[in-house]
Design goal:
The chain is mainly α. Helices cover 88% and strands 0% of the residues.
């Protein structure tokens, strides 16, 4: 039982050392991720559409 308590104490001590991002940093990073995901989704959708059009021309 003592090892479990020691584990939680050490985990808590490590969590106190973490440099947590500010709310503004999190919001900024979230915006970057959302924009990136949207751009990649659009690019993949366009590629998919063009490939289907090319397949329709061949067959």
């Amino acid at each position: 039982m003592g090892r479990i308590i020691q584990f939680f104490r050490e985990s808590y001590a490590e969590l106190r050392k973490v440099a947590w991002p500010s709310r503004e940093e999190v919001a900024s990073s979230t915006k970057v991720v959302l924009v990136s995901v949207c751009l990649i989704a659009l690019a993949l959708g366009l590629i998919d559409f063009l490939l289907f059009q090319a397949i329709d021309l061949v067959f």
